[in-house]
Amino acid sequence: MKLVISPTPAESGAAAAAAGAATIREALDARGRTRIILATGASQFEMLVALTATPGIDWSACEVFHLDEYVGMSASHPASFVGYLRSRFVAQVSGLGRFEAIDGTAADPQAEIDRLSAAIAEAPIDVAFIGIGENGHLAFNDPPALFDTEAPYLRVTLDQACRQQQVSEGWFPDLGAVPTEAYTMSIPQILKARQIICTVPDSRKARAVQGAVEGPLTPDCPASALQGHANAGLYLDAAAASLLAKRAG
């Protein structure tokens, strides 16, 4: 796993965006199209600002998937990840080719999972922009996570640490307002991306980063799954990297 540590979240986000943009350009040059995965949440603010400002990318040839959404949540809700990406990414780029949004309000959750699974299987993913949760989760794969499932998407129950993080970051007023279930891309599906750009700022994530980088490969720290990916980069600010024994790479 490649470590890139920058002094501030803005610098870390810019470095992550630059690395991902290079892969996007390579895919466009080679095949005339690109497919990417985007994460949401506070950890992605600076990266998305930098990525959407990157010149020279034909976004009309780009297909975008995202990692997760709450079950039962409308895209108009302030905490919706679909709404987040529509405002922070889709509206910021010119003529995006495709945004495969998860329908949190789907009447048949299994049918929605099947639809998403078929869509993402159409072609390989070039780059996945992801983050790590305070409890070590990737997407909404809370510990202990499924490392061996063949399902591209899952319906999961969120643990309390994950739900509390959503309150702490200001997305919900209290724990009772946070949904208990979500749709999530599975860890094996995330790992199928040719490149993974994992952006993690803030001291709140330092313990999870330490487990992901220096701990054992274990479902109890879902982010440790990144250790098995041949082209994964972890983009940290100084605070997120503060507990690492080795702080360069």
TrEMBL record:
**Which superkingdom does the taxonomy of this entry point to?**
Bacteria
Spell out the InterPro entries in the cross-references: Glc/Gal-6P_isomerase (IPR006148), Glucosamine6P_isomerase (IPR004547), NagB/RpiA_transferase-like (IPR037171)
- Give start and end of each Glucosamine/galactosamine-6-phosphate isomerase domain: 9-228
Q: Which segment of the chain is annotated as a signal peptide?
A: none
User: PANTHER family, per this entry?
Assistant: GLUCOSAMINE-6-PHOSPHATE ISOMERASE (PTHR11280), GLUCOSAMINE-6-PHOSPHATE ISOMERASE NAGB (PTHR11280:SF6)
Q: Indicate what this protein is called per its UniProt record.
A: Glucosamine-6-phosphate deaminase
What species does this protein belong to?
Answer: Salipiger mangrovisoli
